[in-house]
Amino acid sequence: MFRVFKKLNWFFRYYWKRYVFAIISLIIASAIGLIPPKIAGYTIDQIQFETLTLQLLTAIIIGYVLLIIIHYSISFLWDYTLFSGAVILEKWMRSKLMQHFLSMTPIFFSKYRTGDLMARSTNDLKAISLTAGFGVLTLVDSSIFMLMIIAMMGFTISWKLTLAALIPLPIMAIVMNKYGAAIHKRFSTAQAAFGEMNNEVLESIKGVRVIRAFVQEKYDAKRFEQRTKDVYDKNIAVAKIDALFEPTMKILVGLSYTIGLGYGALLVFENVLTLGDLVTFNVYLGMLIWPMFAVGELINVLQRGNASLDRINHILHYQADVTESDVPVHVEKVTSITFDHVSFAYPNTDKNQLEQVSFQIKQGETLGVVGKTGAGKTTLFKLLLRQYSGVKGEIRISDVNVSDLSLNTIRSWIGYVPQDQMMFSKTIRENIQFGKEDATDEEIFRVMELAHFLNDIKQLPNGLDTQVGESGVTLSGGQKQRVALARAFIKCPELLILDDSLSAVDGNTEANILEHLRAERQNKTTIIAAHRLSAVTHADHIIVLHEGQIVERGTHDELMQLQGWYYTQYVQQQLHGVEVTG
């Protein structure tokens, strides 16, 4: 049960002063809280024996007021210090998770779905934060505070009465341990179900237009209802165990009260105790209720926190399959890109997506990559971006193996426009500035002209400040492509990769963009993958991929003379004026 604290020792070691101060303050506040019952019992005895004077009563009242002020001040200090520490832990864990997500490769995100990651980043972090705050409080109150109360009851009143009243405690320990094990198991299951529900909600929201187009609203609503029922059932299973804590504690506390009152009254009749002692004892017994409840709360909180921490650590301990060299080689700029007999297969697949691919392009040249759908064009770019490991052969930049270069260096050289453009739910200006954070409006308008987007921006209601909506929902496919192009252009990268990034624009727009591209990037390297072959006719080199292999290579004129696949596709596209993918 206490393993969760051991797992968090890295945090407690760093903030040990904060937690030591909070715990000491909590203990002092608890000790001060034990004084008033003793004063009350003393006052009752003074009344019973008719020895209470006005001067003594005044001193007692003043003492009470001072104790209240001191207790309030110290309680504020430990409360603020302890629970602000829990907030800091949540912040740290959230930052670690985010940094981890940003360093992960596609394999990680294929194993863990977005909804599950969101569940771990919200509900599980809250449970861990609760452990570092409320968990520490209940630990101190269920141990040190309880022992302090028992000591006061035993040493200042009667050990016989104290031990008799505490008979239910061992029973409580056994029952609470069983409850805790059940809570851990059921809470883990409930959190996993919540993650699955998140996944389905995200899919439904993203695919809402498809759902409506195929009139699947009722089916999707029914599917969601089944999922929510599953989450409900699993949380009810947690709640059933949770609900047993309080009644169990009340029964045990009731037994303690019964023993305390019955045996205590007997001791008063036998003149072993005074009436004031019995009142004080019962006040202490009442104060003991919270520490006894705290035992149950402690087990509950720690088991939930332990389950959540295991889920978070499972993610954080996942090692990225692509790692950097311990001593990266420093390269000033991209002078050449070489693929030397590169073969690659995605994880858990037997067939190679690339097979013995070899080519070289030099600084300032343009490479066109064409082929049927699934030929391996996007895979080639992913390997250049070092998104996957397990590459056979060599990929070199400036004659240095990419595995010897820093990942940040490689990606800082590259401006990548993928097939599926990602628009952030911000303004057009902010989406373009993602490529260059301090870009001015003048620079933005210049790259929008290169991307042939100026006419569109004039028609939008707020110009550059137009909100694009969730994933760019307010923009057309062609507009999203051109905003993505502008975002890459403003970076002015050493290597620009366009992965079928002109498919949603018309032929005239494509021609204008390519003309601007040639003029702008005369001394920089460009790689263009396209199904519409008109996008690569100007390239210095063109390779044709088929089932991961290069089957044709050369310039546009050379490939036309070969009269192979490239020639056939180009003629068909010119005749029909449409994209033919083969």
From TrEMBL:
Keyword list, A-Z: ATP-binding, Cell membrane, Membrane, Nucleotide-binding, Transmembrane, Transmembrane helix, Transport
Predominant subcellular localization, coarse grouping: membrane
Membrane topology label: Multi-pass membrane protein
Sequence ranges assigned to domain ABC transmembrane type-1 in this UniProt record: 20-304
GO function term, MF aspect, one: ATP hydrolysis activity
Pfam families listed in its UniProt record: ABC_membrane, ABC_tran
InterPro entries listed in its UniProt record: AAA+_ATPase (IPR003593), ABC1_TM_dom (IPR011527), ABC1_TM_sf (IPR036640), ABC_transporter-like_ATP-bd (IPR003439), ABC_transporter-like_CS (IPR017871), P-loop_NTPase (IPR027417), Type_1_exporter (IPR039421)
A GO CC term assigned to this protein in UniProt: plasma membrane
All copies of domain ABC transporter, residue ranges: 337-572
Localization annotation: Cell membrane
Residues that span the membrane, as ranges: 20-36, 56-89, 127-151, 157-176, 251-269, 281-302
Protein name as catalogued: ATP-binding cassette, subfamily B
Originating organism: Virgibacillus chiguensis
